[in-house]
Design brief:
Layout lengths: L1 H4 L1 H4 L1 H6 L5 H21 L3 H27 L1 H24 L6 H11 L1
């Protein structure tokens, strides 16, 4: 949501600053993907499928922001700034492999299909 609330700092302006092509198109697109897939993960609906675009998003974020930081500022500065990115990445990989769990919509809808 912050890509829309603060476009110069976190949306279109940030995408342009780090050299992402077509920032006026890609920043809102990425924002919508993050909101939509994040909401799907929160309710546990198509969890494994929703994790994939977010993993791609995190890989792009790490490649465009953390790798240049590593080269410029060294490992410890990058590691400090990247800890949230890596934690989210590990969580997404877990959800991709394990799915939503027993209280997710995926599980509830799956149990209805099995009881028919």
């Amino acid at each position: 949501m912050q890509k829309f609330l603060f476009p110069e700092a976190l949306g279109v302006g940030r995408f342009a600053k780090i050299g992402i092509p077509a920032p006026g198109l890609l920043a809102p697109f990425v924002g919508v993907v993050e909101i939509a897939c994040g909401a799907l993960l929160l309710v546990g609906f198509v969890t494994k499928l929703a994790a994939v675009p977010l993993i791609i998003d995190m890989l792009a974020a790490i490649a465009t922001t953390k790798i240049p930081m590593l080269v410029k500022n060294g490992f410890w500065a990058m590691a400090h700034d990247a800890r949230t990115d890596y934690a989210m990445m590990m969580g997404l990989i877990f959800l991709l492999l394990a799915g939503g769990g027993p209280v997710s919509l995926d599980a509830r809808l799956g149990s209805r299909k099995q009881s028919r």
